[in-house]
Design goal:
GO terms for molecular function: DNA-binding transcription factor activity, RNA polymerase II-specific; transcription cis-regulatory region binding; zinc ion binding. The protein is an all-alpha fold. It contains 24 helices and no strands.
């Protein structure tokens, strides 16, 4: 056995990858035939399964618009002039070229069958729980290989990135070639959508395509009619278990896209594409279905979280940018949403911990909840930063909740350190956001956040940096980049604290007036202590610009990065200079 195979075997044993017997592969995918919510036979491309549930209303029947009168086949995954003008003719099946048939990474010699099987099992066991993408009972190695070489290659590439980096480069390049071929041919299928998404979760730091890739995947699904999905009724049709799992496979992927779409919108301020429908709102019933898998609970948690906040956040953000709007006008809505996030977290952590205590799901739910609470409470803080008349004493509770949420995110990294290594890139971006916020709020409100709280901030950042630094040989250079970033932030924060101490040690500065209240004087419930009094108007510290962290130049506390694709710029490191994977022959 080669060295790389030995490494893969140890990883498979460590993370519980199954050892199902290897089955010989005979069939190839036909990605030219759209997966229109059906089971598609990979050899013929003909529909052979049951349709997922798409609403067909009276309005659709009597529709006099082009969507109602033109050839329906042309409007459902096969939109072309030829199909529109050939309604009464049998569609001409395009013959696949020899090059299209030679896309299987095993047949191309990129990886051995046994190693491919081991990598695939490791992906299903270790990585898939983070993204809730594939059904382990449906997506066996043989099934995926027979359905889609693109999906198989994407799974193997991301698994190699985590467990056998020697194979990663050629598998990743092959996956990207297949992505280009799919786009060039205009192929559409559920497996193509899943492959595209898998390539975005653990992308390269310089990859800036996630916004367009997710948008392209959503357009494929809409072309296949998924936006018309309706809640499933068990008595509607008679289906085999395989047909039911394939139907849930479509539904699960649409839920995943809804969460992804709303998450990107929340982070970047760009509009979302997927509307909230009755099907989306029925997520909890879907999670409790008889064929639900453990990962569906995490998907249910994320879907309900986006349902709770996605409509209200844009409203709050718009109000926060109106300088004439007082915080009291938005306080009730912020309080309402904060309570809903807290109840959401309690409910879904209880559900996932009841299933298993060793899953990454509790970490993800708590981390996403803390992150959303941080974003929520930074919206009213925007008014404090841009106003010359705001009194921080009046809003100390808002500062405290935001501070606590950011600190909690970093502490969760240390608490659940065993799950950090394989976390998708969004976790790293959120971690950087929490550290950025703590630095900025400590500097901007230096008169109010002092003493022990400053030390607590620095300690939390340093501990999180150590956690990421300890993740050697993990899924990518992301942990190394994150560790370096947090170490720089902690160092700058320490330097700033040292500069603040020197004037205080030199005696009074000559500033008259009451002593400003600090967050250190808050009681455990977040309110001012009984013996604290006095007020001080907000002043920006003069040494804010001395911190060499670019995002601190912002005039608000919005998400500090344009989108989660700005990795290399955010961490100011070239990943080509980072080498921590052992090189083998």
């Amino acid at each position: 056995m080669s060295k790389s195979q030995d490494e893969m075997s140890s990883y498979g044993t460590r993370y519980g990858a199954s050892s199902r017997p290897q089955a010989r592969h005979k069939s190839h995918e036909n990605e030219e035939s759209p997966y229109h919510l059906t089971t598609v036979d990979s050899k013929s491309g003909e529909s052979s399964g049951s349709r997922a549930h798409i609403s067909e209303t009276e309005d659709d029947t009597n529709n006099l618009q082009p969507s109602g009168l033109l050839n329906h086949q042309a409007l459902e995954g096969k939109f072309s002039l030829g199909n529109i003008l050939s309604a009464d003719q049998e569609p001409v099946q395009r013959q696949r070229s020899r090059n299209e048939s030679l896309e299987d990474p095993i047949e191309l010699g990129l990886i051995t069958p046994s190693l491919a099987k081991s990598l695939f099992d490791s992906f299903i066991t270790v990585l898939n729980p983070y993204i809730s993408q594939l059904d382990p009972y449906l997506h066996t190695f043989t099934y995926v290989r027979s359905k889609s070489t693109f999906l198989l290659s994407s799974v193997l590439a991301m698994s190699a990135k985590a467990f056998n980096h020697v194979l990663y480069a050629k598998l990743y390049d092959h996956s990207q070639d297949l992505f280009a071929n799919v786009f060039r041919r205009g192929s559409k299928s559920i497996e193509i959508v899943q492959a595209i998404l898998i390539l975005t979760y653990w992308k390269e730091p310089q990859d800036t395509r996630v916004w367009t890739s997710v948008g392209y995947a959503i357009r494929i699904c809409m072309d296949l009619g998924w936006h018309k999905l309706t809640p499933y009724s068990p008595t509607a049709v008679a289906e085999s278990e395989m047909q039911k799992r394939e139907r849930r496979n479509v539904e699960r992927t649409w839920y995943v896209l809804f969460v992804y779409d709303r998450s990107i919108s929340l982070q970047t301020g760009r509009p979302w594409m997927i509307d909230c429908t009755e099907f989306i709102e029925s997520i909890e019933d879907w999670c409790n279905g008889p064929l639900a898998i453990d990962n569906d609970q995490l998907l249910g948690a994320f879907t309900t979280l986006r349902l709770v906040t996605s409509a209200s956040f844009p409203l709050l953000a718009a109000k926060a940018r109106q300088r004439s709007i007082s915080l009291s006008e938005t306080a009730s809505l912020v309080g309402l949403l904060d309570g809903r996030i807290e109840r959401w977290e309690r409910k879904w952590t209880a559900k996932v911990t009841a299933q298993t205590e060793k899953s990454c799901h509790e970490f993800l739910i708590r981390f996403y909840g803390a992150h959303l609470r941080l974003q929520l409470h930074t919206l009213p803080l925007h008014g404090i930063l841009v106003s010359d008349k705001s009194y921080i004493n009046h809003h100390i509770d808002t500062v405290w909740v935001a501070y606590s949420s950011a600190l909690n995110m970093l502490q969760l990294i240390s608490r659940f350190s065993e799950h950090v290594c394989f976390a998708q890139d969004s976790i790293h971006v959120m971690t950087a956001y929490s550290a950025a916020f703590l630095v900025k709020i400590t500097v901007v409100f230096s008169d109010f956040i002092s003493g022990q709280l400053e030390s607590t901030c620095t300690e939390a950042i340093q501990q999180a940096a150590q956690v990421f630094s300890n993740q050697s040989g993990c899924i990518s250079s992301s942990c190394t980049l994150q560790a370096s970033f947090l170490e720089r932030v902690a160092m700058k924060l320490t330097e700033n604290q040292t500069r603040h101490k020197k004037p205080q040690e030199g005696g009074p500065t000559g500033l008259a007036g009451p002593v400003p209240q600090t967050i250190d004087q808050l009681d455990i419930n977040g309110g001012p202590s009984a013996d604290s009094e006095g007020s001080s108007s907000f002043q920006r510290p003069p040494d804010l610009a001395t911190l060499d962290i670019s995002f601190l130049a912002q005039e608000n506390l919005d998400f500090p990065f344009e989108c989660d694709d700005m990795w290399a710029e955010m961490f100011r490191m070239n990943t080509q200079d980072v080498s921590f994977f052992p090189q083998t022959d």
